[in-house]
Backbone:
């Protein structure tokens, strides 16, 4: 099986594996005061320092969570209290479901948020919390978060950025973007699943917990932290270098050239996007049929976000981009950090084969 | 001063990840990193199968059906979902009940979850316990004279190891039409659990208290009759909408293996720990006359002792026996020097609570460890000048 579904879960990095193994061999609750507890606590705090500084924040302002979804939920719970919420139309379900009454910020056909619309939404009403993702999980489209942060600050609004897909793939910095919060996930940057973080601006760091408990994380998140997963998270964050995009970009482009030749449409092409991600719609062929055919050929890709895998339907991301029926005909190919060139060549051959087989079948169905 | 080898006697704070658990998890960290929700491809499906096999193991330990198990990040999250989820679901319905009953000696995350709900219009009630740490069932009956939404009572206390009679307490709650939740984080793998037979509606479990990894836990949610909950947070709709977020497949595989080991080895392990604890207690009583046990010795898990020492504070003993990893109370708050609220609820004055240590022995504690712990504590005690307080 060749794995091209990194946006669902990145391939684990060996550095993360080593850090986790070391952590799993230890005993001790990081909240305990004895020697074993203190050693675990040091590991936890070293990880906090490493991840916070890696993404432009301070250790004291980083809250560890169980993952990106909880980090997003904590941001909306903690920063959204008493504010109206505005969310980008193509946000992850973790944001959309946490803010059911939110105003929707539209995107253009390439998936980029409409900043003029944001300006109008912010001007019209009480102080807001805006949620805008750094990079989209289905198309890789990068959002203008720096400009959005400037607008938000001008209007007294807060900006929460879901950087789950962007972190480790493009430069991500809380301070440099001027945003108020960043959500991060370990398993999307080559660490293990089960850990994530919310990095907060210093003035907002004493956030109300979603899940109180024994007072851990300075009262901002109860529960014994997943120390081993966090150690792996920190190690992965340290070695996920953005320069890897220089290697992945040309491989992704090769896939897209081949797909275009088969009549595919690249969704979200044009503006800046993640170098590892390609969202390929094959007009007239249902996404699930494409994914099943590729799965049988030994390639792991997906139709949209993993959380909604198994549900058949149009992607809300592509629908928001105005792609109509193509929204149910697109697959996501996302290259893991360690993808081999040979795997990409093999995928191109399999894609051609799949497209050739499914398109005539469709034509005969229609006849 | 030469560093003595560390002896870990804090198995109620956390446990060492069993090497068999580690071995079971490793492939899922390293080669099989597929997202278990990516059921469209083979790697995702394999991860999903592993998650479901683990779910069956967890269910078997708890006496439940696999589809009654929801995976979480740990017992704190399970307790938050159970308590807030049950309350918030009812609030949205035509139901006037607002009372939520719990016990003064619960884990902080239960006390805080129940307390938080006061701000949402619910009525928290915190019941006292007897001096042995056990709840008098009549106290519960009395509290339930006001129509009650939910009762939350932990199976085993994290500081004093006492075991509440959950089947009897759950029956009282059911008779009065209240839902019953139990935090079984400290009970799993220590005493047999039977969520179905006990008649509880909700039951919480933690991975790292049963020799599994940190960062994973589970919540049993009864299906017949079905218990309805509002999620704590939403997202991709995983775990039937009750708990969104990518399931950490390796951690879940570890939890499943930890539960399998607990189920198959519990009886033998409890017997071994009972013998070891007796050795620890009789050794300490002989070496330090006047040592006293807090909490019922009859209704107690075999790995726990909670001891008040004469003439020396817990801090003094810990400082003089740094090779022993033990604690004054629950780990989450052990950085605070506040007296334990659990001991206060038992009626201990603060001066005695300050002379109290929790000793938790476990799967990897040997008889030699116990003997060394007795010698270390006896020496530490002998070197402590008698304080005015004693």
Residues:
């Amino acid at each position: 099986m060749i794995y091209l579904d990194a946006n669902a879960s990145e391939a684990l990095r060996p550095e993360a594996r080593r850090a986790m193994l070391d952590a799993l061999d230890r005993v001790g609750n990081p909240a305990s005061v004895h020697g074993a507890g203190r050693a675990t606590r040091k590991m936890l705090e070293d990880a906090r320092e490493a991840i916070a500084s890696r993404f432009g924040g301070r250790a004291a302002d980083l809250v560890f969570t169980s993952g990106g979804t909880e980090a997003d939920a904590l941001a909306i719970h903690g920063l959204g209290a008493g504010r109206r919420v505005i969310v980008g139309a193509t946000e992850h379900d973790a944001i959309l479901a946490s803010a059911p009454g939110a105003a929707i910020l539209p995107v253009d056909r390439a998936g980029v948020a409409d900043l003029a619309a944001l300006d109008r939404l912010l001007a019209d009403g009480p102080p807001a919390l805006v949620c805008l993702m750094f990079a989209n999980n289905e198309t890789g489209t990068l959002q203008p978060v720096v400009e959005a942060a400037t607008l938000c600050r001008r209007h007294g609004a807060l900006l929460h950025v879901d950087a789950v897909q962007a972190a480790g793939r493009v430069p991500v910095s809380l301070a440099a973007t001027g945003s108020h919060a960043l959500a991060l996930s370990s398993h999307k940057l080559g660490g293990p699943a089960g850990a994530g973080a919310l990095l907060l601006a210093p003035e907002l760091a004493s956030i109300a917990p979603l899940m109180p408990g024994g007072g851990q994380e300075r009262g901002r998140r109860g529960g014994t932290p997943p120390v081993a997963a966090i150690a792996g998270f920190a190690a992965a964050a340290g070695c996920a270098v953005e320069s890897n995009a220089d290697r992945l970009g040309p491989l992704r482009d090769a896939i897209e050239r081949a797909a275009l030749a088969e009549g595919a449409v690249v969704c979200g092409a044009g503006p800046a996007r993640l170098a590892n991600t390609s969202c390929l719609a094959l007009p007239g062929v249902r996404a699930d049929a494409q994914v099943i055919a590729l799965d049988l050929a030994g390639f792991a890709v997906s139709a949209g976000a993993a959380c909604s895998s198994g549900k058949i339907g149009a992607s809300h991301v592509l629908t928001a981009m105005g792609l109509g029926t193509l929204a149910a005909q697109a697959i996501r190919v996302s290259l893991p950090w360690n993808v081999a060139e040979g795997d990409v060549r093999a995928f191109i051959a399999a894609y051609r084969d799949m497209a050739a087989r499914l398109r005539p079948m469709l034509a005969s169905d229609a006849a | 001063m030469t560093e003595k080898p560390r002896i870990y006697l804090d198995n109620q704070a956390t446990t060492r990840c069993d090497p068999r658990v580690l071995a079971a998890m490793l492939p899922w960290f390293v080669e099989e990193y597929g997202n278990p929700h990516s059921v469209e491809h083979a790697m995702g499906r394999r991860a999903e199968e592993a998650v479901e096999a683990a779910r069956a193991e967890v269910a078997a330990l708890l006496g439940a059906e696999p589809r009654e198990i929801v995976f979480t990040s740990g017992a704190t999250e399970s307790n938050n979902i159970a308590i807030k989820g049950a309350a918030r679901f009812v609030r949205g319905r035509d139901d006037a009940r607002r009372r939520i009953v719990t016990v003064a000696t619960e884990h902080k995350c239960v006390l805080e979850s129940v307390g938080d709900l006061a701000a949402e219009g619910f009525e928290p009630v915190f019941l006292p316990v007897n001096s042995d740490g056990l709840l008098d069932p009549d106290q519960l009956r009395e509290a339930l004279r006001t129509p009650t939404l939910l009762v939350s009572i932990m199976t085993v206390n994290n500081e004093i190891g006492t075991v509440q009679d959950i089947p009897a307490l759950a029956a009282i709650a059911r008779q009065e039409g209240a839902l019953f939740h139990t935090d079984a984080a400290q009970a799993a793998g220590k005493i047999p659990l039977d969520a179905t037979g006990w008649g509880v509606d909700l039951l919480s479990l933690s991975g790292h208290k049963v020799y599994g990894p940190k960062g994973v836990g589970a919540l049993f949610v009864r299906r017949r009759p079905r218990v309805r909950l509002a999620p704590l947070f939403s997202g991709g709709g995983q775990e039937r909408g009750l708990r969104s977020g990518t399931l950490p497949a390796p951690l879940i595989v570890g939890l499943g293996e930890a539960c399998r080991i607990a189920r198959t080895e519990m009886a033998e392990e409890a017997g071994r720990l009972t013998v070891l604890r007796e050795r620890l207690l009789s050794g300490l009583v002989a070496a330090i006359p006047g040592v006293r046990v807090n909490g019922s010795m009859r209704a107690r898990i075999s790995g726990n002792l909670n001891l008040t020492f004469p003439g020396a504070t817990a801090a003094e003993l810990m400082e003089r026996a740094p090779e022993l990893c033990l604690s004054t109370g629950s780990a989450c708050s052990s950085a605070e020097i506040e007296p334990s609220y659990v001991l206060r609820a038992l009626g201990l004055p603060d001066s005695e609570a300050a002379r109290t240590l929790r000793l938790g022995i476990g799967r990897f504690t040997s008889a030699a460890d116990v003997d060394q712990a007795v010698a270390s504590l006896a020496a530490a005690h002998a070197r402590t000048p008698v304080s005015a307080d004693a």
